[in-house]
Amino acid sequence: VACSEFAKGHTKKAVLGSLLIVGILGMATTASAQVRGTGAYIAAEKNDNKAPGEYSFIGGGDKNEANNTYSTVGGGYYNEANGDSSTIGGGYYNEANGDSSTIGGGYYNEAKGESSTIGGGDNNSATGMHSTIGGGDNNSATGRYSTIAGGWLNQATGHSSTVAGGRNNQATNENSTVGGGSFNQATGRNSTVAGGYKNKATGVDSTIAGGRNNQANGIGSFAAGIDNQANANNTVALGNKNIIKGKDSVAIGSNNTVETGKENVFILGSNTKDAQSNSVLLGNNTSGKVATTIKNAKVNGLTLENFAGV
């Protein structure tokens, strides 16, 4: 009888112990369920991943969070997919905060704008709606539909602006474009800087093909080479140190100047002086003259009349 009572006592203790273990497991299961939303799936729960968003998904990695509906983190660590239908493929310390935003990988990237995309790289920020950064580092695409393909320290702030690459380039106005190079600025609407160094296209529809320290400030102006300035509307400055201040004028060569108020000038050469309106200057050290109208002339005794010339 004593043995029987002894066995009964141990049986009760075993049952109570089992119930205690079951209770602890139940509490752990409940705690785990608190970081998983309806229909959510976590492939690596033991690594402190959290998917509180409905139908959210975490494929792997450690300490990742899929916090919104249909948000996804493929892997990596310390990534946060906070926007509705946002996605992070991998990497670490990335944040996809905009709805339908995407980060492929890299680290310390933020896709904040709706439907914004960052392919990779580091410390990139895509805050404009439908903005895109392919890669690189420390790039910022803030304009709606703006694009930065790569490089570093580039800014695309204008609507539909583009920086293809390079460094420290800025495309700040609507439809402005910088192809590459460094320290270039396309600030005019529909302006373009193809590349080079420290070029500025500030005029509407202005273009700089390349080179360094060029300025295209006039509407529809064009510059290429070194230290050229196409400051007036519809002007072209090609070569070296040409300064065009008179509208509808062209200078091809070096060290040529068309002053303000002198219009429709064409220069092909170098070091020309005193360019006058409606004149053509060719060669080196050529001086301009005021255009005059000639109505008649005598050639070999033959008088020619009723024409205009210079």
What brief labels describe this structure?
UspA1_rep; 310 residues; Alkaline Protease, subunit P, domain 1; 1 helix; 17-stranded parallel beta sheet; single chain; Serralysin-like_metalloprot_C; Ubiquitous surface protein A2H; mainly beta; 29% strand
Q: Overview of this structure, please?
A:
This protein is mainly beta. The chain has one helix spanning 2-33; strands spanning 41-42, 57-58, 65-66, 72-73, 80-81, 87-88, 95-96, 102-103, 110-111, 117-118, 125-126, 132-133, 140-141, 147-148, 155-156, 162-163, 170-171, 177-178, 185-186, 192-193, 200-201, 207-212, 215-216, 222-226, 229-230, 236-240, 243-244, 250-254, 257-258, 266-270, 280-284, 296-299, 302-305. Among the domains are: 36-152, Serralysin-like metalloprotease, C-terminal (Alkaline Protease, subunit P, domain 1); 227-310, Alkaline Protease, subunit P, domain 1 (2 Solenoid). It has one helix and 33 strands. The strands form three sheets. The protein has a 17-stranded parallel β-sheet, with no helix packed on it. A 14-stranded parallel β-sheet has the order 3-5-7-9-11-13-15-17-19-21-23-25-27-29, with no helix packed on it. A two-stranded antiparallel sheet has the order 32-33. Strand 32 (296-299) and strand 33 (302-305) form a beta hairpin. The radius of gyration is 35 Å and the shape is rod-shaped. It starts with a helix and ends in a 5-residue tail after the last strand. Keywords: Signal. Residues 1-33 form the signal peptide. This is Ubiquitous surface protein A2H.
